[in-house]
Amino acid sequence: MKHVKAILVVWLLIVNTSFAQNENEQSFGYLAKFCSDSLEIVELQSYGFPISDGNDVKLLMSGHEKFEDLFEHIKNAKSFIHLEYFNFRNDSINSLLINLLHQKAQQGVEIRVLYDAFGNSSNNQPIKKEKNDSINALGIEMYKYDPIKFPWVNHLARDHRKIVVIDGLYAYTGGMNVADYYVDGLEEIGEWRDIHARIKGPAVNDLHQIFVDMWAKQTGFLLTGAKYFPVTKNKEGNAKIAVINRHTKKLPKSVRQLYVSMLNNAKHNVKIINPYFVPTHSIYQAIEKAIKRGVDVQILVSEKGDIPLTPEASQYVAYKLMKKGAKVFLFQKGFHHAKIMMVDDRFCTLGSANLNSRSIRYDLEVNVVVFHRETTRQLVEMFDNDKKNSIELNEQNWKQRSKWKRTVGWFGNLLTPFI
Q: What is the architecture of the domain spanning 54-219?
């Protein structure tokens, strides 16, 4: 990494020299303004993550937007539809999706679906074997990833990704699985907030390669060629995109490297939303260092949660960072399941990776880093709007919490390496 930093310094000096005919102060100011995203691109390239230019990104800010957009593009599919999800809840939105996929299969469109066995069994309306078999009978190839078998300890690494690829032209990724509550919320929690993105451009092939590798591992059948990986010279948009794939054997440190590098390269501000905010030591340290450098760090976590213990643990960790100088907001309008971070109003990440030990150390995950000011601005605007439905954490309202909640949070914090 020292060599990479040295090369980068030389590169910046060369670029600065090219501006020598302009006023020196303007040149240095220009470089300083663009430094954080330039540093991030070079660092991600040094880790070997694919980065492509010429992408178009459409943010889908709710479950309603995601499924409406996804279903419309599925209807227009001509060649293939590939889906990889942590779970498909056996409910009405899933029924709509399966019916639509069945219609496309009847038209000759190839349909392939992967879902995680543990993710499926962990929800209260799982797809059972009979249902899986009936879906396959419709011409939809549907497989569980890593089926749970005796002695039930084989499933340490869960496939937590959310990827859809249509005709090699469009890709979807983000934090949403397939379930009604992304649209309707849950009675005990309220609104379920989340983020997804539709991508068009060369990054589609990078995301598709992840699905293809998983499909080959599960079925033994490798999908290759221009049909599945079309080559296009068209520039679909102005976004550079890095695809961060966490694979337990090939890329075990990718999520940690992503978050640490983004935090280390931040110069002005960082905004974080994450549903299970119990970061491991290296990421916690990177947040601390950013605060010490004078970076404005803002963190939004939910007051409610879908997993016992985690909300209190997240709030306890956030409280510790608040005491070090971060601004912390407790979201009160339902549950915020988005996994996003924005840096310096210039670049951002979204995807499936939580800021907890499971995502960082064990699960199969995918995030995209989007180098595009307009996309980042939209997420910052969402962050600021969601702050209006939150309370800012401070010493006074922290001490007003019950002793039981504070004790649970403290205990959950001790379990950070495991939850």
A: 2-Layer Sandwich (3.30)
Write the DSSP assignment of 239-285 as a string of letters: EEEEEEEEBTTTBTTHHHHHHHHHHHH-SSEEEEE-SS----HHHHH
Please write the tens of the pLDDT for every residue from 368-377.
999 999 999 9
Q: Say if residues 173 and 199 touch (Cβ distance below 8 Å).
A: yes
| CATH 3.30.870.10 correct for 38-51+241-414 | yes
* Tens of pLDDT, residues 77-119: 999 999 999 999 999 999 999 999 999 999 999 999 999 998 9
CA–CA distance, 19 with 292 (Å, rounded to integer): 32
Cis upstream peptide for 230 (omega within 30°): no
Vertex 190: Cα angle to 276 and 64 (nearest 5): 90
Q: Are 31 and 15 in contact (CB under 8 A)?
A: yes
Q: What is the pTM of this model?
A: 0.91
Partners of 270 in the β-ladder: 297, 343
In the chain, CATH 3.30.870.10 covers 38-51+241-414, 54-219
Tokens 């909300």: give the residue: 311
- Rounded to whole angstroms, the Cα distance separating 265 from 263 reads 5
Angle in degrees, CA 28, 325, 270, rounded to 5: 50
